[in-house]
Amino acid sequence: MSERAFSIELNKKVKATELSSLFKSGVLKNIKLFECIDRDCSVPLTAKAVNSTKQPAQFIIQNHSQPHISTCFEAGKKEHIDRFLLEKKRVNELLQSQTIQTFAAPLVSDNSKKNSENSFHKVSNTSQKGGQRSSSSNSNSKKEEHKTTRSLDIMVDTFENSIDKSEMFNISFPFEVRQWPDVKSFKIQETRGKKTLNELFCPISEMFPFNKFKIFYGLAYLQETNRTQVSINFIHNNSIHLYTNKEKLLNLPEKETIKKALLDNKPVIVYCQGAIELVHLKDGDEFRIITVTEHIYRSLFFKSHSESLGIL
């Protein structure tokens, strides 16, 4: 359960421990006017047990078909498990019915609103409630969304549990715009279209596809380069480099796996959505995986070696 949420009524963050007094005093009136604080998530939340003397007040998702995203920092362990099982069931049902479904990039985060928490949520709510569409258009949109998976852990689970990996998927992985590096200058290929699992997933090795979107994976050591940064060093190709924010990594759902890898200096399996590019640096050129998302951690998924199904 989320310990805090964004109150649409008050236009600010509210802690679960504050709910009882806020509703009792009349400051808050509607238990359903809340959103997840994680700006990449923002799912609608409901305040529960605000008048209860037997259990503490808490925030729960309003609709089980619209769970927290896979990289949400605010969701509890149970919520992440429920989301994973729900998505896995849906993907398996579509596979069994031989329906071609879509693997897609995380929804684009609106970076222009990073520094304005209130403006983010105002725009978010407007987009959710406004703009009436025709019923047929809305129906088609819902059907397509039902067939779309944006969670990397679900894609990995589908890949690892597939026997021949020949299942066909639509893919849609536009790269987010960012200040550095300039993604447009790379002209990354194969971000859309139809792919089998074998074509989509690519092991990190000495030979690698260049300038093409893939879900790369391989054994890697995690190393703290400084207080804020972690480098991901792939065992089977030490020329490809990936760096990301330590604090963000240690807040991911698989944070225990990441912590153990850092403490014990043992390799983990890293999955990454992106393209390998030659990046120009001041002290020379370097091959790097340019991730689909500007915030690198949103394009990553970590598994302990013991959890793998013989993929490596």
Automatic annotation (TrEMBL):
Biased composition (Polar residues): 121-133
Basic and acidic residues: bias regions: 111-120
Region feature (Disordered): 111-149
Protein name: Uncharacterized protein
Species: Lactococcus lactis
